[in-house]
Amino acid sequence: MIEGFRIDVTAEELLRHLDGRIQIHREAAVRCDSKRIRLEAAASSDKPSEDAEDEDAHLALCWPGYVGDLERRAERHKNHEAALVFLRDHIIAREIYRLAESDLRLLELGPRRFGVIAEG
User: Fold this and answer.
1) Percent share of the chain, pLDDT over 70
2) Mean pLDDT, to the nearest integer, of 18-44?
């Protein structure tokens, strides 16, 4: 009898996946930080923003907490990146990993909510 659902993944597959997810979080953090810095500079400047049509500039004007939200998003991406780097650095080469649903979520493999598959 098989109890539960497990997926076997090689160490190499995990390393490739984690490297990709780490890069995604790194780039997202950089984008959030860049937007925040640009918006803070525009807010402290006496001149109107050259990017008057910029969606982020409009959001910053309409949503006073937007700059702080960008800072929190960047920090969240950096934390995800650090956690995934730690996991990646502790993968044992040439092993097979048997992953449960909680492992898949931790490693950011698959959809955020597995219930979405059943609902679809």
Assistant:
1) 77
2) 91
Q: Tokens in use for 115?
A: 């219930």
Q: Where are the beta strands (DSSP E) in the chain?
A: 7-10, 96-99
Confidence of residue 89 (pLDDT cuts 50, 70, 90): very high
Q: Give every CB contact of residue 25 below 8 A, 6+ residues apart in sequence.
A: 77, 78, 80, 81, 84
Q: From residue 80, give the alpha-carbon distance in Å to each of 29, 69, 94.
A: 10, 16, 25
Domain that holds residue 78: 7-46+53-113
pTM of the model: 0.79
Looking at the 3D structure of the chain, how many domains does it have? Answer: 1
Has residue 2 been placed in a domain? no
- In the numeric block, which tokens belong to residue 32? 């959030």
